[in-house]
Amino acid sequence: MARREPAVDTSPPVRDEIVPTTCYMCACRCGIRVHMRNGQIRYIDGNPEHPVNRGVICGKGSAGIMTQHAPSRLRAPLLRTGPRGSGEFKEISWEEALGIATGWLRDIRASNPSRLAFFTGRDQSQALTSWWAQQFGTPNYAAHGGFCSVNMAAGGLYSIGGSFWEFGEPDWEHTRYFLMFGVAEDHASNPIKIALGKLKGRPKDRRAKFVSINPVRTGYSAIADEWIGIRPGTDGLFVLALVHELLRAGKIDLDYLAHYTNAPYLVVGNPGGADNGLFARDSYGRPLVWDRVYQEPVEATRPDAKPALTGTHTLPDGCIVRPVFELIAERYLDPQYAPNAVAGRTGVPASTIRRIAAEMAHAAFEQSFELDVRDWWTDTNGGRHGKFRGRPVSMYAMRGISAHSNGFHTCRALHLLQMLLGTIDTPGGYRYRPPFPRLSPPPAQPSGFEGEVKPNTPLPGVPLGFPSGPDKLLVDKEGKPLRIDKAFSWEAPLALHGAMQMVIHNAWKGDPYPIDTLFMYMANMAWNSAMNTEGTMRMLADKDAATGDYRIPHIVYSDAYFSEMVAYADLVLPDTTYLERHDCISLLDRPISDADAAADAIRQPVIAPDRDVRPFQDVLLDLGARLGLPGCVLEDGSPRYPGGYPDYMINHERKPGTGMLAGWRGHDGALIGRGPKNPKQLKRYKRNGCFWHSELPESGRYYRFANRDYLEWAVGMGFIDRVEQLTLQLYSEPLQKFRLAAEGHGNAQPPDSERARIRTYFDPLPIWYPPFEEAAFKHADYPLHAITQRPMAMYHSWGTQNAWLRQIHARNFLYMSRRMAVRLGLKDDDWVWIESPHGRVKAPIRTMDGVNDDTVWTWNAIGKRAGAWSLDTNAPEATKGFLLNHVISELLPPREDGHRYANADPVTGQAAWYDLRVRIEKCAEAEAGETAPQFAPLPKPPGLFEPLKKLRYGAWFRKSDDREAAP
Ligand code: SF4
């Protein structure tokens, strides 16, 4: 008799609906599919069709369920009832909350809009928030870039009209030699993981070498073929030593330099003169090169020019000039950049530097190749080419080199190295992502000049821009800053992303002026986003002794979660989670394009909020309408976007035909880039998995700075205004203009106190100097570097409220090399004091091999204030997790006259997080076991969910009747 098999359902239904949207568990913006069952999230996976992640999902992305169910979700608007910082609130209605906010903001706008400081954190709607600030009329706007990686952005945009980060990527498919500098986790997290996987899996004959330059060997570095454990803050010196070696060996792409960079531009040598160091120009203002055949100056972009790269020449008017390349060779062939000279400082042996330079040269020139172009490509001079020549050396860099006080020049040095090898936008090299490349620097200037900030009046443009010279700074007649964060002032002239880390300090001090309202979104400034955390909390709650009023009179804060910052707000506007709202990942903001295609995306609500919360973007538009901001209301005063953010995403136009989304424009959705509004646009996005992705013409995929096929396409898309070569800038004339101002030339000159600083740091060619903090204190007193990294499983503080991710990182350790631990008499799990010139923090240690001997490090943002994020007051995050932020100062030591600069890069104002210097001392036995400093536990705001003691999310899905509701 045949045996009867038991009836087993091998494929039970697990979902009844799949809703595509975009992940927001980190900044990577992968496409996800949310699988729903009976109105609840069953699980989340990667969208296989999505161009960012191709179906890949990381641990954070799939754990989004637990962020959606986090007990730290705020539930209703809150009004402070106790002293600021006490965490005492009462719930109020939205009508009351918006009425209070409108009252404060209306008064400011009617008197002096600068008294509003509006700063957003890891906000992915900056196209909206910056526009709103412009409509309000305040120059005091920025997102978090100033304390993240603005050095990277500015270094790139002032050199190659693009950058790493979201602006470009290695040519993963063709590269043969890949160098990664200072990257732990990144905004391109899944794409990098996918690409590294493919790189490592290549067949023998196409093998690529992956070299990681990073003080710490974790994450991506762990799978590198070679790890160079450099000393923090010395990457620029290492890179300039590579430049020295390549110049010495003559391994430079001279043809590329002559055609696509300003290497042949003639630089005026007139020491002390107003034109010294500027480019020699013809009567139309066009830069000149020296034609080596005719031995005369000619206009740089003349197609038949045969530009000289070397020599000293005399123009007809007697002016002495030298090509940029000559200056480069002179500077970097100097013995100070020789490998032997830099080895001690960088911690990289001279032989290694020489070998890396030789390997790069080998890959660039011996493994050079050509890619056929089916339809040929046309350059900006009209020349036709059947091939793209490849230089397969690629690089990628991020915050590790950026977050130093010398980071801007280090980023510039990296781009210099790339240009000398001819690897920018060539096969196998670095590739732009649309809408880049752009003019270097881009033409938009900041807004908020004297006379532009007026009562009840929008600014003429968005607050942030790209100063082309000293006359474009936001300073008054005495040279004093016009912005609260001092961005675009003499103290931080190229602060392209603002300097958010200085806002609270400056507002508290009333320097350069007092403000009325601090309005922040998603920025945990009372904890892990602040330097000098304890001081920042004090400043937020400090009162004027004479009046008894808070020194920052009003604080409005919007967040979805009960972060540490909530306790310091007067008014809390609760946001939704990313699964409960529409969002726009716009090309006007931070693109998700890849090198072969332009792309943008949306988020759509997957689940309805179960709380009285509203999407921040809707709230902002509502506030704008209540305030009567011109962009937010119609002529009759009624709201222009009554449908909130989705309405804005479809109907707002930045200029005719250019809106928030580039896909499916036009009445029938047939247009891309530019075109009339399409009322069905969001439907088309949703039908397509919530993204739009449009490939570039094959002939427009490389050499885009001089590729007519690409440039015409980019003009059609609205990315640039005209078809012209975008010359790469080895030598930065805008920087030289600042230097000339410091030397006493021009109408816009720095105050005397700033001249030396501007003169030193606005070098038109990359320089290296020791990080400021390292230079300010004796090495013997603080012998170690201390840095942080973002772990793959956590995105800043967000992960800590996530029950699944907390199981990976609920506490952190201070990691140090085994050799250093032996020297200090320490072993695993010992508790130590980490002392900096600014304070001390207590932590347990772990030892490891993969770290530079002079460096200690930890994971970022694991430590929490007791009670915050709805964690138990005894949660390991609060008792054993710690922050290095406590021992980092937002200010440098005083100058001779007592003035204290921001602890930042002097060019861009980027926060110098990784300049920190410390010493380590073992704790007394009795001190071990709990971190310090500790702060009073924060009480939970009214109405918050109670955390479950035991979490069994999804248990009910296993039951036979899965209609049972979740607890
Ligand atoms: S990499 Fe970031 S955006 Fe992508 S799935 Fe992971 S958390 Fe989400």
- Please state the CA-atom Rg, rounded to the nearest Å: 28 Å
Q: Give the strand line-up of the largest sheet.
A: 5-4-23-22-21-6-7
Biggest sheet features: 7 strands, mixed
Task: Give the low-confidence spans.
Answer: 961-965
Hetero ligands: iron/sulfur cluster
Q: Mind explaining what this structure looks like?
A:
The chain is of the alpha/beta class and 967 residues long. 23% of the residues lie in helices and 17% in strands. The protein contains 24 helices and 34 strands. A seven-stranded mixed sheet has the order 5-4-23-22-21-6-7, sandwiched between helices. Helix 6 links the parallel strand 9 and strand 10 (209-213). The chain is globular. Residues 961-965 have low confidence and may be disordered. Bound molecules: iron/sulfur cluster (SF4). Iron/sulfur cluster binds at residues 23, 25-26, 28-30, 53, 57-58, 60-61, 189-190. The site of iron/sulfur cluster has 13 residues, from helix 1 and helix 6.
